[in-house]
Design a protein that fits this description.
mainly beta; OB fold (Dihydrolipoamide Acetyltransferase, E2P); 2 domains; 1 helix; binds zinc ion
């Protein structure tokens, strides 16, 4: 079994976003998981992802930060087929009109690697 968590963060430090591809059914998961959610196989391996996808759903004003700032939680279909919850940035989004979030459904998004303190993470941004 691959030590996914350590390798996931090491890849982020190297500038790569990785997921896990199942050798039994070819489905891709992100973030990488140890057991395939589609077929139950544990024959998975890490692959580099393009970091691009489509926004399916989002919730603005999601209280993600301890300092009181709000953020947007998104649900994205990555181009490799994985569906995942993400932290989302929409430049210029008007948080006083949260219903306008639906205007962004179906838009292309791209993941960028950011560092909070010393720990890297991925934030998706509309293109
Ligand atoms: Zn599978």
């Amino acid at each position: 079994m691959i030590p996914y968590v350590k390798e996931f963060y090491q890849n982020l430090r190297d500038g790569k976003i990785v997921g896990a591809k199942c050798d039994a059914c070819n489905s891709v998961s992100y973030p990488p998981i140890a057991t395939c959610s589609e077929c139950g196989s544990d024959e998975l391996r890490l692959i580099q992802l393009a970091g691009t996808g489509t926004l399916l759903l989002a919730v603005p004003n999601y209280p993600l930060t301890a300092d009181g700032r709000t953020a947007i939680a998104g649900y994205v279909r990555l181009d490799e087929g994985a569906h995942t919850m993400v932290s989302l940035e929409i430049p210029g989004f008007d948080f006083s009109s949260p219903e306008r979030i639906q205007d962004y459904y179906g838009k292309r998004v791209r993941g960028k690697i950011v560092k909070h303190d010393t720990v890297p993470s991925v934030v998706f941004c509309t293109e």
